[in-house]
């Protein structure tokens, strides 16, 4: 399958997943969750969904557990909204890139302060 089509499906899934998580799921364990990326395999059998959660480690784990529990509902909704023959299996992963970027920014700010003194 062409990489362009797989990429386009991944972006569409990212948009739909964000809407489903924010508006459809009523689980109180899900905090402020942002879908940062979706990687779909070439055969459209699996999709890795990278999510970022604002909060501490416990809130992150609770949100991930709630997403795992709601995986069937989310997959059904994605399949209903995106017309595909087979809806990919969803694998949720925590994306630590935002946290890592924030840490780097803090370090660079500290270095800049030290150089100004």
What's the gist of this structure?
With 117 residues, the chain is α+β, with helices and mostly antiparallel strands. Helix content is 56%, strand content 21%.
Describe this structure in words.
With 117 residues, the protein is of the alpha+beta class. It has one domain: K homology (KH) domain (GMP Synthetase, Chain A, domain 3, 2-Layer Sandwich). It has helices at 3-24, 57-69, 71-81, 97-116, and strands at 32-40, 46-54, 89-94. Strands 1-2-3 form a 3-stranded mixed β-sheet. The protein is globular, with a radius of gyration of 17 Å.
Write the layout of secondary structure elements.
Elements (H helix, E strand, L loop, with lengths): L2 H22 L7 E9 L5 E9 L2 H13 L1 H11 L7 E6 L2 H20 L1
Parallel strand pairs: 2-3
Antiparallel strand pairs: 1-2
Helix pairs in contact: 1-3
Q: On the 0-100 scale, what is the average pLDDT?
A: 90
Helix/strand-derived category reads alpha+beta
- For the largest sheet, list the strands in their spatial order: 1-2-3
Number of strands: 3
Q: Give a short account of the largest sheet.
A: 3 strands, mixed
Helix residue percentage:
55-70%
Report low-confidence residues grouped into runs of 5 or more: none
Quick one: CATH class? Alpha Beta
Total domains, how many?
Answer: 1
**In the CATH hierarchy, what is the architecture at level 2?**
2-Layer Sandwich
Strand proportion, as a percent range, falls in 15-25%
Rg is 17 Å
End-to-end span in angstroms?
57 Å
What's the name of the CATH homologous superfamily? K homology (KH) domain
What is the chain-wise order of helices and strands?
HEEHHEH
Q: Shape from CA axes?
A: globular
Number of helices: 4
Q: Looking at CATH, which topology would you report?
A: GMP Synthetase, Chain A, domain 3
Keywords: Cytoplasm, Ribosome biogenesis
Subcellular location: Cytoplasm
InterPro entries: KH_dom-like_a/b (IPR015946), RbfA (IPR000238), RbfA_dom_sf (IPR023799), Ribosome-bd_factorA_CS (IPR020053)
Family: Belongs to the RbfA family.
């Amino acid at each position: 399958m062409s990489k362009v089509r797989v990429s386009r499906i991944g972006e569409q899934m990212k948009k739909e997943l964000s809407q489903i998580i924010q508006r459809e799921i009523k689980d109180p364990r899900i905090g402020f969750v942002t879908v940062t990326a979706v990687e779909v395999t070439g055969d459209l059998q699996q999709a890795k969904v990278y999510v970022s959660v604002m909060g501490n480690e416990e809130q992150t784990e609770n949100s991930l557990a709630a997403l795992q529990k709601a995986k069937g509902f989310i997959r059904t909704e994605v399949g209903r909204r995106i017309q595909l023959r087979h809806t990919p299996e969803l694998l949720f992963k925590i994306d630590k890139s935002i946290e890592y970027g924030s840490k780097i920014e803090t370090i660079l700010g500290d270095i800049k302060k030290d150089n100004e003194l």
